[in-house]
Write a structure and sequence with these properties.
heterodimer; A: 116 residues; mainly beta; six-stranded mixed beta sheet; four-stranded antiparallel beta sheet; globular; B: 116 residues; seven-stranded mixed beta sheet; 11 strands
């Protein structure tokens, strides 16, 4: 079945460090891929998305490229800030007929803490 | 727009009590859903709705009921609360689930439920 596996945390970095959070997926058909971010005490917000192979999603300095050959959608940022401290979720939405309509399959989340 | 709103923010129940978690959206979204978030498990789909009068079960529906009498509202009912239902509950919505999974979903701020 459809699933997402993302890097376990927590991840602790110093400000201006490079960030990578790995995400791989299993899906039939051609899923859309998402990164959501959850700041402390808040709901999930879309960070970026990609809807087809080789698409690159980007937002707020974060990037992720939809790699069908490696079934991956790794999140990267060149220089993290204290304000990036949050939990990051990789997710996919399946498109094939057997999928539950609209369902997002989430990874377990990665806690990122950035120190000044 | 208020987006997706949820009430209450926090609730304590005793085992066997019932309650309704409220969710409303003002974006005229067809699709609404409920997820629960448990530590280390990401988010799991409870129930979803593709329009007023239409609901269906997700991954973990047992112990929960839903109805969708209007486009705006999608309440989640706990019939007889159990400690296993202690969790954070998120409501989400999107324009349509019929676009091959490409739609961005918008999440509410969550309801934190503790069942004693």
């Amino acid at each position: 079945g459809d699933s997402v596996t993302q890097m376990e945390g927590p991840v602790t970095l110093s400000e201006e460090a490079f960030l990578t959070i790995n995400c791989t997926y299993t899906a039939t058909g051609y899923p859309s891929l998402f990164w959501y971010v959850q700041y402390p005490g808040e709901g999930l917000q879309l960070l970026l998305k990609a809807t087809k192979a080789d698409d690159k999603g980007s937002n707020k300095g974060f990037e992720a490229t939809y790699r069908k050959e490696t079934t991956s959608f790794h999140l990267e940022k060149g220089s993290v800030q204290v304000s990036d401290s949050a939990v990051y979720f990789c997710a996919l939405s399946a498109s094939d007929r057997g999928s539950t309509l609209g369902r997002l399959y989430f990874g377990r989340g990665t806690q990122l803490t950035v120190w000044p | 727009n208020a987006g997706v709103t949820q009430t209450p923010k926090f609730q304590v129940l005793k085992t066997g009590q019932s309650m309704t978690l409220q969710c409303a959206q003002d974006m005229n979204h067809e699709y609404m859903s409920w997820y629960r978030q448990d530590p280390g498990m990401g988010l799991r789909l409870i129930h979803y709705s593709v329009g007023a009068g239409i609901t269906d079960q997700g991954e973990v529906p047992n112990g929960y009921n839903v109805s969708r009498s209007t486009t705006e509202d999608f309440p989640l009912r706990l019939l007889s609360a159990a400690p296993s239902q202690t969790s954070v509950y998120f409501c989400a919505s999107s324009y349509s689930p019929f676009t091959g999974g490409q739609e961005t979903q918008y999440f509410g701020p969550g309801t934190r439920l503790l069942v004693l």
